Amino acid sequence: MISDSYVPRYREIEQALRARIADLKPGDPLPSDAAICREFGVSRMTARNAVGRLAEEGLITREPGRGSFVAVPQSHRWANSLMSFSDEMRRHGREPRSRLLRRELRSARPDEIRDLRLGDGEPVVALVRIRLADDVPIAVEAVALHGRCAAVVMAADLETGSLHEALRGAGFVPARGRATLAAGAASAEDANLLGVAPGTPLLVERRVIVDLRGRPLESTESRYPADRYALDVDFEVEGTRDRAARGRDHS
Fold this sequence. Notes:
Blueprint lengths: L8 H13 L11 H8 L3 H13 L3 E4 L3 E4 L6 E2 L6 H7 L4 E12 L2 H7 L6 E11 L2 E11 L3 H6 L7 H7 L6 E10 L2 H7 L6 E10 L5 E10 L5 E2 L7 H10 L2
Parallel strand pairs: 3-10
Antiparallel strand pairs: 1-2, 4-5, 5-6, 6-9, 7-8, 8-9
Helix pairs in contact: 1-3, 2-3
């Protein structure tokens, strides 16, 4: 049985390297796989898994025969990965901050009961924050978290600190999730909080994140002004591999 506090070794190394990257410049080298093995006392496979995740997120580039280097910051987030807002903004060389508008322990609403697999009347920790980068509003974020992490969330610094860092530090590790993206228009409240005109186009992201045991941990809606934030997507044209395989069969 995996306890709430269990964190895979490669994830610990990944987070340690991620913290170092925040203090480095594009092009700066990272430790080699062999150096990581010596420093953390792990196998080469574990070291490669940790570094591979950073490469998948675009934080580093790997050059055969040369090593790993801090990547030039991308302008957008990749849709198939999610890092904390704080880490994401630091990766872009921007200073993250939040303005906490509301933090409360309350009964779950119907959509939160569904997303977090709760029973009627079970509590959630509800947060509303404005996420800022260099003091520019980037998103209005409404979060509902499972009641089991209430103590850590109610005590966490959610203005200058990271929610996900606080959760990980208490053993509630955000592991994976699913998101839905849609277009929206700024309401009067959105307009006031984001400093835009009512009706301004918004990118609306709704996501549910689960922990290492697959249990729902967080249900979030983030509302971004369309000219301040975007998502990049890698994709494959459907059927291409099948057609290529048929072509080889007939060659």
